[in-house]
Amino acid sequence: MFISVELPDDVKNKIDLLVTELEKSTAQVKWVAAKNLHITLKFLGWVEEKDLEKIIGLTRQSVADTGSFKAAFGGIGTFPEGKSPRVVWVGTEEGGDGLCGLANRLEKNLSDAGFRSEEREFKPHLTIGRVKERKGVDDLKIRISKLGNSKFGEMTVDKIHIMKSTLTPKGPIYDIFKEVKL
């Protein structure tokens, strides 16, 4: 399971057009399907059924004093930067502070309650692809640099979702378990 901000279809469609361009590179990348694009605020991993109500309560507590805010998406990059990137991402041009605040409160409340802690600092982004091997990465990076200033739209973040992920041979299937309004 994970907690996320789900994106509107118009943003997903614009990012999908970007992925179509990046797929022309010779790099071996597992691209995220448009329907699965989201911003992960907190990864929970495997969760026991007995803990579900506790997660809902802690999520509500984490957003209790948070109002809605605008987020705008633009820019493309990789983690890590350099010769051996593993993740291709789209960034946030507006609303990053709000997303960081949500992620940090979720991290604190859930890890204090004994759920999996995240070792890395949260950076607001959407993962759009995972690089499988080094071959073709230079071509991919050239394409990213040419498209780096792309804009993908905006949204009002007024709710977050506790998501269930089912892994299948054709890729993950994400289902909303619970919607929590800000």
Question: Would you give an account of this structure?
Answer:
The chain is α+β, with helices and mostly antiparallel strands and 182 residues long. The chain has one domain (2-181): Cyclic phosphodiesterase (Cyclic Phosphodiesterase, Chain: A, Alpha-Beta Complex). It has four helices and nine strands, in the order E-H-E-E-H-E-E-H-E-H-E-E-E. The chain has helices at 9-22, 52-63, 96-112, 137-147; strands at residues 2-6, 29-31, 38-43, 69-79, 87-94, 125-131, 151-157, 159-168, 171-181. Helix 2 packs across helix 3 (96-112). The model has no long low-confidence stretch (mean pLDDT 95).
Topology (elements, then pairings):
Blueprint: E1 2-6, H1 9-22, E2 29-31, E3 38-43, H2 52-63, E4 69-79, E5 87-94, H3 96-112, E6 125-131, H4 137-147, E7 151-157, E8 159-168, E9 171-181
Percent of sequence in beta strands: 35-45%
CATH class: Alpha Beta
- Percent in helix: 25-40%
Q: Radius of gyration, Cα only, in angstroms?
A: 17 Å
Distance between the termini: 20 Å
Work out the number of β strands. 9
